[in-house]
């Protein structure tokens, strides 16, 4: 019988705690079991294996990011929406660097993550539609936007910008560069 209070969602909550504190590579069934006070085999009542648990964690991260981006872009359009999307992306990655690192690079190609990844993509495409980009042009723009945001935040959280100049100023320049580029693509 499953332990009272333990459910797949509760297991994911504990797994996120492990990820937050120790990084995604530290996520093991043993680490989660130790925090829940059960033996590792007891977790199999809630998740099939470590692969499924990692997938559930990734889905939760995608959902959190989608919520954060959706909240940021709500009621905005055009340049303002792009800037809000970029700020929300960066804020999530900086505030939750280990969770961000737990997000797989190609969620749309993973059946377990396709729905959550699709919702995140839908939010980005809605912003781009407000910039006059649709169809194939919007997909190309979304890829460029993601590459720019992801590259910046990965370098930032890893301490890859060693010079003393202000990172917020650099990110605003990246935003302006992306917005100007999107205007030319529309």
TrEMBL record:
Binding region for DNA: 28-47
Domain HTH tetR-type: 5-65
PROSITE patterns linked to this entry: HTH_TETR_2
Annotated Pfam families: TetR_C_33, TetR_N
Domain of life of the native organism: Bacteria
PANTHER family: HTH-TYPE TRANSCRIPTIONAL REGULATOR RUTR, TRANSCRIPTIONAL REGULATORY PROTEIN
Protein name: TetR family transcriptional regulator
Gene3D superfamilies per the UniProt record, alphabetical: Homeodomain-like, Tetracycline Repressor, domain 2
Molecular-function GO terms, alphabetical: DNA-binding transcription factor activity; transcription cis-regulatory region binding
Alphabetic keyword roster: DNA-binding, Transcription, Transcription regulation
């Amino acid at each position: 019988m499953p332990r009272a209070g333990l459910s797949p969602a509760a297991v994911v909550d504990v797994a996120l705690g492990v990820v937050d504190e120790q990084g995604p590579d530290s996520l093991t069934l043993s680490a989660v079991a130790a925090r829940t006070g059960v033996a590792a085999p007891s977790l199999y009542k809630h998740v099939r294996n470590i692969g499924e648990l990692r997938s559930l964690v990734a889905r939760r991260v995608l959902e959190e990011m989608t919520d954060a981006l959706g909240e940021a872009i709500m009621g905005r359009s055009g340049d303002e929406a792009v800037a809000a999307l970029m700020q929300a992306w960066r804020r999530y990655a900086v505030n939750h660097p280990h969770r961000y690192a737990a997000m797989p690079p190609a969620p749309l190609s993973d059946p377990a993550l396709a729905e959550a990844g699709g919702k995140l993509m839908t939010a980005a495409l809605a912003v781009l539609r407000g910039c006059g980009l649709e169809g194939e042009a919007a997909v190309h723009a979304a890829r460029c936007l993601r590459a720019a945001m992801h590259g910046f935040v990965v370098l930032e959280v890893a301490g890859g910008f060693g010079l003393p100049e202000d990172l917020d100023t650099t990110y605003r320049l990246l935003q302006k560069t992306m917005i100007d580029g999107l205007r030319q693509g529309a």
